[in-house]
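Hey L., structure's done. Input below.
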Amino acid sequence: MADLDDELARHHGASFGWALVCCNGDRSVAEDVLQNAYLKLYDGRARFAGQSSVRAFLFSVIRRTASEDRRRRLVRAALSLSVLRSEGAESTEQVSGLTPIIYDETCRQLNAALLRLSSRQRQVIHLVFYQELTISAAAEILGISIGSARTHYERGKAQLRVYLEDIKKP
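Output:
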C-alpha cells in the first residue's frame, strides 16, 4: 500500500462498522479487533498484494482478526470456567449483545430483525448495503464463493422481509 496511514484514515469509519458486525455489536471487542488488525498491517503480518481493492483487503484482515479474537476468548472462557467449576463458584460472565442506544423505532426493529439472521447472511447484507460493496467483493472478503454470497444475500433479504412483516402485524 502506497500510504498506509492515508488508506486507513480513509476507510476507518467503514472498517469500524465492519468490525462491529464481525464482533456481534460489541463495541469494546470491535475496537480491540480493529486495533489488532491495524497492527497486523503496520508490522507486516498482513500484506497487501494488490489482488483486490484496499478496502476488500482491509475488511478481510478485520474478519480474520475478529475470528482469531473470538477463538481466543472462547479458549480463555473455557479455561476460566473449568477453574471456577473446580472451585465450586459460579460464573458471572455474561455475553453482551448489540446494545447501542437506538432512538428510532424503525431502526430498532430492523436491528432486531438483522440479529435474527444467520451470521453469514448478516455479514453479506452488511457489506452490500452498509459498505456499498458488490456481492463479489463481499464474497472475496468473507472467503466464500460468489454463488454462496448471492444465496446468503437473497435468503437474508427474504428473511428480513418476513421478520419485518411479522413486526408490523398487530
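Residues 83 and 89 are 9 Å apart (CA to CA). The longest helix spans residues 54-87.

-- N.
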